[in-house]
Amino acid sequence: MLKIENLNVWFGSGRDRVNAVQNANFAVKSGASFGLVGESGSGKSTILRAIMGLTKNWSGKVYVDGTQTSIKKHNSFYKTVQMVFQDPYASLHPRHSVDQVLGETLYLHGFQDIDARVVHLLDDVGLEAKFRFRYPHQLSGGQRQRVAIARALAPEPKVLLLDEPTSALDVSVQAEILNLLSDLRSRNSLTYIMVSHDLAVVSHMCESLAVMKDSEIVEIMDVSTLRNSKACHPYSQQLLLASI
Q1: pLDDT tier at 183 (50, 70, 90 boundaries)?
Q2: Using N-to-C axis directions, what is the helix angle for 98-108 and 141-153, rounded to 10°?
Q3: Structural domain tally of the chain?
Q4: How do strand 67-69 and strand 81-84 relate by DSSP bridges?
Q5: Dist CA 69 CA 14 (whole Å)
Q6: To 5 degrees, how large is the angle CA 223–CA 239–CA 36?
Q7: Distance CA 191, CA 214 (A)
Q8: Alpha carbons 91 and 43: distance in angstroms, whole number
Q9: Angle of the 171-188 helix axis to the 141-153 helix axis, nearest 10
């Protein structure tokens, strides 16, 4: 469903150039969940942003469902791939109600019967109809993230990019959102690429993962290798030890 070949992402130019991602390669099967882990600044979120077209300075090849994408994305791309950001308060318009957030997304993607679809989306993410006309400041962190997930689901995508979707939430709410994401993936046959610094979250949510260090993928492993602490690369081993 998603294949990355020799992805490089950089910021600035000349002496000021910073290589944020270097020669990244991985593939994710349809319906699978793939994790990207590593310390802050290692390039995890930058990969997601490059896939989504949120950063322009990149080279390499990105294939989605067998089709190579370009730096400039067509509308059809966003019907296939959507992203859930780390901070749900920052990613929702503060002056738009939940109804406006979801309704506008549906309208932009050409859907009809928007009212019914808004209610259905809220139900999908475990929110009652009473939340429809509330604003972000009237919602808890977990409720805001549920709205953000509903917005991502609105175009009926095949792939969700999850950029640390629970790290900004209280611990008590994190498990609820992770369970919701697991249920949605199973129900809708979604493919996930999840960025996280929490190995326990990745172990729970993903079948395989890539470990990043200093802008490079140093190891790709399946989750059983992670759980059995059998990583090969020294940095991956340090990461496992630090998480115990």
Answers
A1: very high
A2: 20
A3: 1
A4: unpaired
A5: 27
A6: 50
A7: 26
A8: 20
A9: 20
The pLDDT, as a whole number, for residue 244 is 65
Structure tokens at 199: 């190995």
Q: Is the separation of the CB atoms in 199 and 210 below 8 Å? A: no
The alpha carbon of 151 is separated from its chain's Cα centroid by a whole number of angstroms, namely 13
Tell which residue, 50, 52, 62, 53, has the closest CA to residue 19: 50
Summarised one tens digit per residue, pLDDT across range 124-135 is 999 998 999 999
Its pTM stands at 0.94
In this structure, is the dihedral angle defined by the CA atoms of residues 72, 74, 75 and 77, taken in order, positive or negative?
A: negative
CATH number at residue 143: 3.40.50.300
Domain that holds residue 231: 2-243
Residue 181 · residue 192 · CB < 8 Å:
yes
Tally the residues of the chain.
244
Query: DSSP label at 241?
Result: H
3-state helix/strand/coil string of 128-179: CHHHCCCCHHHCCHHHHHHHHHHHHHCCCCCEEEEECCCCCCCHHHHHHHHH
